[in-house]
């Protein structure tokens, strides 16, 4: 009796459900002892292995195999291995026999005998496929159950592969290896001709189902798909069942259903489709799979997208499959890409992104740039049109609503560029598209756009250098040549056919800032005249671009018959240069956006912007070096990756691949025209270059080259400077300044470098020939850093620094020179006193003779310039004396800490060696542990430091005797009429003297505050006063605290520099917890709308940093909002638009629900004390900016009575209606809330109508009584209401 495959294995026990062969006397291995199971299994395996393959359908053998597989979980590992081996071997033999049987037989053979043999083969084939399928399902279920408990050995917690050849391999069950063996055996069935075996009937459907079911099980197993033998065997079975035996719909239906569950199937199914197409030359399986996933309603995918928060199934798997399928079988997908068109308009962004990726694969693989020789013109044209439509789709998708899809579009364009598949006609269009995306709100899109621009630069067809000026000059030259050879106007605009060969016209300018085009405008991506020729002009343009890249841009003149060819070449060259110039200008125009991205909060923006700026500099883009300068301050970033990127960029741009001398000159060029902030950043970069691990980037060879650049015959860059023209003398001097500044930066990190070549530094830096202030300043700074070295120079070597005090550029040089003297001299106070006496003598010597600098006499005939020098050095000496005391105290503490550490280590070593401490030593140990000695030493040191500070202004000292003179001079009203340099030096000296003594500060603090608000004082001097008051607030906070309000008044100063300085000082004090901000923060908030963009940006940065100081759930902005709201509402000069802008910024920092709910309560309560419409609107606007929870909405509805009177204003009523509408869109809302909001809206309308009626009735009553209500003369200046607002908070 022929065996028929049952629906379930248990059906073989029921005679009614098994019409063919069935299990008659099977054994239940679960009921047998272990020894009996082994004995039974041994007999069954002997029957399987020692009989032919057809014996499987014999009743006793069939029952034994059925019993073994049903009791598979009770078998030991060796028995399992032997069972799988036996069944697979017999199936292999059976397949060979079936193949021989299905071959062309002898015409004389008996038909009945042949049919009987075929029937026995069919019956055995059914049995083997059934048993192996059953065994596979049991083993896979067992493997899945054991997977969570398996030790992690790779991705997903599973071992990546089994160890082949391990000892005693048969003693452990290895399903991974046995699965491969089983899969290969089932794949052999595909080699047999089942049509011949089942002739004249088709192959049995139950056989095909069982056979393919096993392949489906293998496909759904991630570990099976990681094994190439198992994967290829499953593909063999599935492809044969689908294409060879007509079960295409069943196979594709099962596979697409499994695709939604198994993530790994995305790539596996794409590989299966490619396998089937290659093996059978039939693409129906790929087409049917694509049709299955495309036939799903987009709404279903949208629902899956929302439900699939983990990103491990559903539409995401389908999306991955679409992208993989396009990569595996691009021509097939290209022919049926229209199936996916409806999903481009769907809301499943992952599927849209996958279609975009698929389009990129199709353009690269399905539409090669060079068609075959056998391609006819019509086919070529059809392919070009199809490719054009795909490119148009990519252009449109750049404006997709989802950021992930927009980023994928940018990545796809980058893939086309790197694969050299981007048509030249789209180069400028894609460049402008990428530049527009630099302003995208998503950092993911911006990163992809930056990477795309980098690819466009790296793969540009215009040459390794992109000099805009050269391109413009060459373009003008070739246009002139073309005009000479062909004065007749061209039929098309220049560059139309050559520059846009794919039928696309040049895209219009994207507008200011490179913003994207409107959805209806293709931005240069629309289809132009389809009849325009493309091939010839494209080839000509390619030839010219190759010539440009080789550096040859000359066209050989041709006469006679070659004139037409020469004209065509000139036209193509003009088009090429036009395209190159447009591309260069587009990239150069994007540099301001790249500079803005350097300040982005997203780390990816900064890193990619730096990379792109480096690429632009390498290609010679105009403005790239200047933009790279803006990168330097990023070395102070909090992110280590950003700091490393800055250092690596400087290394790549200025050091890597260059000779030491050239590298140093390149690094020195960064100091040319650098601001103070850029110099500070460069100093930090140099420090990082010196300490970079594993090897410094600034090596000894570089430092030697830096010294050698200044070690000329006379250590002077220009001995005859006075006789040299200014243009010739400027470059050596500038190089000298930059080199000395670079040496000062190196000395800040490694001061011993200066000590090694100190004579050269003194000779060059303080040279009497050139007297350059900037060079002398840099040399003095290097000397100051030398104070940190272990072996400072002798005092005699510092005489050049003293002589520098008589040079030009006096103030900056004097400041560094005095600092250097205090850092290096063993007795700086004595030497500083001599300097002051000399300056005082110089000032008195010029009394009555006027100032040498033309500033005129100050008072009593004393020259202003000399007196200003004296005051400046006096203040600097006083300040350095204070710093010197702090430095000495710190050095004493460090020495004492080192001594205590050494003593502790010695004591530990003594105790470890077993030594006993004496009684005195024990007492010392106890005192040390209690900190008695350390506290006494600290107290003594603090007392000494206070004594030293008091001696600075002691009457017995030189500074103390002169300080009253400075104070008297500053208090004199004649100060306002003095020379500006003298006035500034005197006030600066007064401020520095105030830093040294609390009593002197208290006596003169009122004067500083008064002068700060005096407009007759220059803005620069007022800036100095602001900085001085900030320093005093840090030095003597209790003295300055009563004057705190005056520190905020410069925020409204008419001079932008004063406002900026005041804002920066207050930011420093507040963020470092040196000043309380409450009470005056509204003045800072007003700077958010400052006329100067830089000041407004600094104010925004202040509030951002203030909000980041949240601690344990507190929010500083939330705590300050009531005060700011009251003050801003009472500000008469603040326009409503400015108020809204400020509050929108501040309320954006309220992120937590409990803070928002509390603010709702406070803002609603304030309506009770307000009677003016402008203030109602301000409060309503603030309410609209908050992110409400359900509790907040309920609070709004409950407090309707508090703001009922304000509903008469249409704007206020509209706000509350909008809030009710937002409540309905709340993500987690209850039905009760929705009903409450409906009722709330009804109450709003009713209350508003009642209020209007009441106002109308009151107006009518007043009219009847002859008392018309007087209009409010100034509704915006509601100071009284503002006070009420403040009390309401």
UniProtKB/TrEMBL annotation:
A Pfam family matched in the record? Cnd1_N
Keyword DNA-binding on this protein?
no
SUPFAM superfamilies annotated for this entry? ARM repeat
Predominant localisation class: nucleus
Q: Where is the stretch described as Disordered?
A: 147-167, 482-536, 1262-1289
A single GO molecular function term of this UniProt record: histone binding
List the InterPro entries hit by this protein, alphabetically.
ARM-like, ARM-type_fold, CND1/NCAPD3, Cnd1_C, Condensin_cplx_su1, Condensin_cplx_su1_N
Question: Gene3D superfamilies, alphabetically?
Answer: Leucine-rich Repeat Variant
Name the UniProt key words of this record, in alphabetical order: Cell cycle, Cell division, Chromosome, Coiled coil, DNA condensation, Mitosis, Nucleus
User: Where do Basic and acidic residues bias regions lie?
Assistant: 482-494
Coiled coil (residue ranges) = 1223-1250
Q: Where in the cell is it found?
A: Chromosome; Nucleus
Q: Which GO terms describe its biological process?
A: cell division; meiotic chromosome condensation; mitotic chromosome condensation
- May I have one GO cellular component term? condensed chromosome, centromeric region
Q: Where is the Condensin complex subunit 1 N-terminal domain?
A: 79-249
Q: Where is the Condensin complex subunit 1 C-terminal domain?
A: 1021-1183
Known function: Regulatory subunit of the condensin complex, a complex required for conversion of interphase chromatin into mitotic-like condense chromosomes. The condensin complex probably introduces positive supercoils into relaxed DNA in the presence of type I topoisomerases and converts nicked DNA into positive knotted forms in the presence of type II topoisomerases.
What family does the Swiss-Prot or TrEMBL record give for this protein?
Answer: Belongs to the CND1 (condensin subunit 1) family.
Q: What is this protein called?
A: Condensin-1 complex subunit CAP-D2
């Amino acid at each position: 009796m022929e065996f028929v495959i049952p629906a379930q294995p248990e059906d073989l026990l029921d005679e009614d459900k098994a019409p063919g062969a069935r299990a008659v006397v099977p054994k239940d291995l679960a009921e047998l002892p272990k020894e009996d199971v082994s004995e039974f299994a041994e007999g069954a395996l002997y029957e399987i292995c020692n009989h032919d393959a057809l014996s499987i359908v014999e009743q006793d053998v069939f029952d034994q195999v059925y019993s073994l597989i049903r009791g598979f979980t009770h078998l030991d590992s060796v028995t399992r291995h032997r069972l799988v081996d036996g069944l697979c071997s017999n199936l292999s033999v059976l397949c060979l026999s079936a193949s021989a049987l299905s071959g062309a037989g002898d015409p004389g053979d008996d038909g009945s005998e042949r049919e009987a043999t075929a029937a026995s083969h069919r019956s055995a084939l059914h049995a083997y496929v059934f048993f192996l399928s059953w065994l596979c399902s049991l083993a896979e279920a067992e493997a899945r159950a054991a997977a969570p408990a398996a030790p992690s050995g790779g991705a997903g917690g599973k071992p990546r592969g089994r160890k082949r050849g391990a000892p005693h391999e048969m003693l452990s069950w290895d399903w991974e290896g046995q699965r491969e063996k089983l899969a290969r055996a089932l794949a052999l069935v595909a080699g047999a001709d089942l049509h011949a075996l089942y002739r004249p009937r088709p192959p049995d459907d139950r056989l095909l189902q069982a056979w393919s079911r096993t392949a489906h099980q293998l496909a759904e197993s991630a570990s099976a798909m990681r094994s190439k033998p198992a994967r290829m065997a499953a593909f063999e079975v599935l492809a044969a069942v689908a294409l060879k035996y007509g079960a295409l719909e069943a196979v594709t239906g099962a596979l697409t259903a499994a695709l939604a569950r198994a993530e790994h199937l995305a790539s596996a199914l794409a590989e299966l489709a490619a396998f089937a197409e290659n093996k059978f030359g039939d693409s129906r399986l790929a087409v049917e799979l694509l049709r299955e996933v495309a036939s799903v309603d987009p709404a279903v995918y949208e629902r899956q997208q929302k439900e699939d928060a983990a990103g491990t199934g559903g539409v995401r798997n389908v999306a991955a499959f679409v992208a993989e399928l396009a990569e595996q079988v691009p021509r097939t997908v290209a022919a049926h890409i229209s199936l996916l068109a409806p999903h481009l308009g769907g809301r499943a962004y992952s599927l849209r992104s996958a279609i975009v990726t698929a389009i990129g694969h199709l353009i690269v693989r399905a539409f090669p740039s060079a068609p075959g020789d056998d391609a006819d013109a019509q086919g070529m044209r059809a392919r070009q049109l199809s490719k054009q439509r795909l490119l148009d789709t990519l252009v449109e998708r750049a404006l997709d609503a989802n950021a992930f899809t927009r980023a994928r579009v940018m990545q796809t364009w980058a893939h086309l560029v790197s694969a050299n598949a981007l048509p030249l006609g789209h180069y400028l269009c894609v460049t402008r598209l990428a530049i527009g995306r630099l302003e995208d709100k998503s950092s993911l899109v911006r990163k992809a756009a930056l990477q795309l621009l980098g690819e466009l630069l790296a793969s540009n067809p215009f040459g390794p250098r992109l000099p805009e000026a050269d391109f413009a000059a060459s373009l003008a030259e070739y246009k002139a040549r073309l005009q000479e050879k062909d004065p007749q106007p061209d039929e098309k605009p220049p560059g139309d056919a050559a520059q846009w060969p794919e039928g696309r016209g040049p895209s219009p300018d994207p507008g200011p800032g490179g913003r994207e085009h409107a959805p209806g405008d293709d931005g240069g991506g629309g289809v132009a005249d389809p009849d325009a020729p493309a091939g010839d002009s494209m080839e000509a343009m390619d030839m010219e671009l190759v010539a440009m890249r080789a550096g040859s841009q000359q066209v050989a003149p041709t006469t006679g018959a070659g004139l037409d060819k020469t004209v065509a070449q000139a036209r193509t060259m003009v088009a090429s240069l036009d395209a190159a110039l447009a591309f260069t200008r587009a990239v150069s125009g994007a540099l301001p956006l790249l500079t803005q991205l350097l300040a982005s909060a997203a780390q990816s923006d900064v890193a990619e912007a730096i990379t792109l700026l480096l690429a632009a500099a390498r290609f010679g883009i105009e403005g790239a070096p200047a933009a790279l300068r803006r990168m330097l301050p990023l070395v102070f970033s909090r992110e280590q990756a950003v700091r490393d990127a800055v250092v690596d960029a400087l290394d790549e741009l200025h050091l890597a691949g260059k000779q030491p001398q050239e590298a140093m000159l390149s690094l020195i060029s960064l100091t040319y025209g650098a601001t103070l902030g850029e110099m500070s950043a460069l100093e930090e970069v140099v420090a990082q270059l010196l300490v970079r691990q594993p090897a410094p980037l600034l090596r000894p060879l570089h430092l030697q080259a830096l010294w050698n650049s200044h070690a000329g015959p006379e250590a002077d860059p220009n001995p005859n400077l006075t006789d040299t023209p200014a243009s010739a003398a400027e470059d050596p001097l500038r190089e000298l300044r930059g080199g000395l500044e670079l040496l000062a930066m190196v000395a800040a990190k490694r001061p011993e470098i200066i000590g090694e070549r100190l004579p050269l530094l003194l000779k060059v830096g303080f040279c009497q020939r050139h007297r350059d202030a900037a060079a002398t300043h840099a040399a003095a700074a290097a000397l100051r850093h030398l104070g940190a070295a272990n072996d400072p120079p002798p005092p005699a070597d510092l005489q050049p620094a003293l002589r520098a005090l008589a040079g030009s550029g006096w103030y900056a040089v004097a400041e560094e020179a005095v600092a250097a003297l205090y850092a290096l001299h063993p007795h700086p106070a004595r030497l500083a006193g001599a300097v002051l006496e000399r300056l005082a003598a110089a000032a008195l010597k010029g009394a009555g003779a006027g100032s040498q600098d033309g500033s005129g006499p100050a008072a009593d005939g004393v020259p202003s310039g000399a007196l200003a020098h004296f005051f400046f050095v006096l203040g600097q000496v006083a300040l350095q004396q204070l710093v010197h005391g702090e430095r000495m105290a710190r050095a004493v503490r460090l020495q004492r800490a080192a001594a205590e550490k050494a003593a502790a280590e010695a004591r530990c070593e003594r105790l470890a060696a077993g030594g006993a401490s004496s009684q005195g030593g024990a007492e010392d140990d106890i005192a040390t542990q209690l900190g008695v000695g350390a506290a006494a030493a600290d107290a003594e040191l603090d007392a000494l430091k206070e004594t030293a500070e008091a001696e600075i202004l002691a009457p017995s000292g030189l500074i103390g005797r002169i300080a009253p003179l400075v104070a008297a001079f500053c208090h004199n009203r004649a100060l306002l009429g003095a020379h500006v340099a003298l006035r500034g030096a005197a006030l600066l000296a007064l401020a520095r003297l105030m830093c040294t003594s609390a009593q002197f500060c208290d006596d003169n603090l009122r004067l500083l505050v008064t002068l700060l608000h005096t407009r007759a004082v220059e803005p620069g001097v007022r800036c100095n006063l602001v900085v001085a008051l900030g320093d005093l607030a840090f030095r003597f906070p209790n003295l300055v605290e009563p004057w705190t309000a005056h520190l905020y008044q410069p925020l409204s100063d008419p001079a932008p520099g004063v406002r900026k300085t005041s804002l920066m000082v207050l930011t420093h004090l507040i963020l470092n917890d040196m000043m309380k901000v409450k009470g005056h923060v509204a003045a800072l908030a007003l700077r958010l709308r400052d006329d100067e963009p830089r000041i407004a940006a600094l104010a925004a940065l202040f509030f951002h940093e203030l909000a980041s100081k949240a601690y344990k759930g507190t929010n500083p902005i939330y705590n300050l909002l009531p005060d700011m709201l009251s003050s801003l509402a009472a500000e008469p000069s603040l326009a409503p638009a400015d108020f809204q802008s400020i509050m929108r910024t501040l309320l954006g920092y309220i992120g937590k629900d409990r803070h928002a709910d509390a603010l709702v309560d406070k803002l609603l309560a304030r309506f009770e004390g307000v009677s003016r419409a402008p203030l109602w609107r301000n409060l309503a606007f603030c309410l609209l900016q908050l992110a409400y929870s359900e509790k907040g909405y309920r609070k709004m509805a409950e407090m309707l009575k508090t703001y009922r009177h304000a509903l008469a204003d249409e704007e206020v009523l509209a706000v509350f209606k909008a809030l009710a509408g937002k409540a309905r869109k709340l993500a987690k809302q209850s039905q009760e809330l929705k009903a409450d909001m409906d009722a709330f809206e009804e109450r709003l309308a009713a209350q508003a109508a009642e209020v209007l009626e009441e106002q109308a009735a009151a107006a009518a009553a007043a009219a009847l009584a002859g008392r018309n209500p007087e209009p409010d003369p100034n509704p915006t200046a509601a100071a009284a209401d503002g006070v009420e607002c403040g009390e309401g908070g």
